[in-house]
Amino acid sequence: MKKYTTFLSVTPIVIALLTLVGWAFSINILIYPFSNVVMNPVTAICIILCGISFLSYYKLEYNRFNHAVWILSAIIPMTLGLFLLIRIIGIDLHLDQLLFSSYITDQATHMMQKRMAPNTALNFILIGTALLLARVERDWKQSLGNYLMLAAFVIGIFGFVVILFHVPRATHLLPMSLQTAFCFILLSLAYLYENSHRGFMWVIGSENIGGKTARMYIPIAVILPVFIGYGTLYLAGRIEFSTELGAAVLVISIMWVFFMGIWYISRDLNISDSARVQLE
């Protein structure tokens, strides 16, 4: 699993850098690649710092400089996220308007869709904290990092689905852009893969039959319902497709995924039992 972590951590950095290029040169295809909810430039900076923090700790040789980069690159997004999250109680420091502020405030149809959303700020707190816990020696604190990253992953998936499904109210209240959600998903996976021996991840990272089965079916369990839900909404907007029929298709699809998963696990357990009996 660890062989994928470099790619998973570098990709968000590249996406964020492209977004900053779009902001700097007013390239709309880089600013608005999927919807009118965009990646705030401060969000892009924070994503880059999170990726650098991960690479500094896990992929680069340990020295004082890399150690300082790891800590600072984790603390800055976490601190910014904390100060931006308090906006929900009415204290607005406008830290997400430090870059390209005139463009954000003057040209936005809905300014909140260009500002850092509360769920985005929360994710930076979670990811920054998890990165700082990477060097803690106590097992429960190391495992806590995995749970924090799991929470960030779930928030990222929610943001991705909300934008993909064009949920108007959720998009207005929690306007996380599609590329921001995708970056959070990749960063979370990079951390979880790198720490596959800690906490709940040891089950998934195991080379035994349980770990192999989990690695096969968890991606299916996450991705397939999203595609089915999107396909249902897509058809509903173009042909006469009732909500009840869409719900039925979704339920049957989930049942089929569960059936195939149970069948596969049962098959491997039977093979394992047969091999054990022959050895005895």
| Total discrete domains | 2
Question: Separation of termini?
Answer: 33 Å
Radius of gyration: 21 Å
Number of helical segments?
Answer: 12
Q: Tell me the total number of β-strands.
A: 0
Global mean pLDDT: 84
User: Looking at the structure, what is the overall shape?
Assistant: flat
Largest β sheet strand count, sense and barrel closure: none
Fraction of helical residues: over 70%
Short description:
With 280 residues, the chain is mostly helical. The chain has twelve helices and no strands. The two termini are 33 Å apart.
Give an account of the 3D structure.
With 280 residues, the protein is mainly alpha-helical. It folds into 2 domains: 2-202; 206-280, no CATH class. The chain has helices at residues 5-25, 28-31, 41-58, 64-85, 101-106, 118-132, 139-164, 168-173, 178-194, 201-205, 209-236, 243-279. Helix 4 runs antiparallel to helix 6 (118-132).
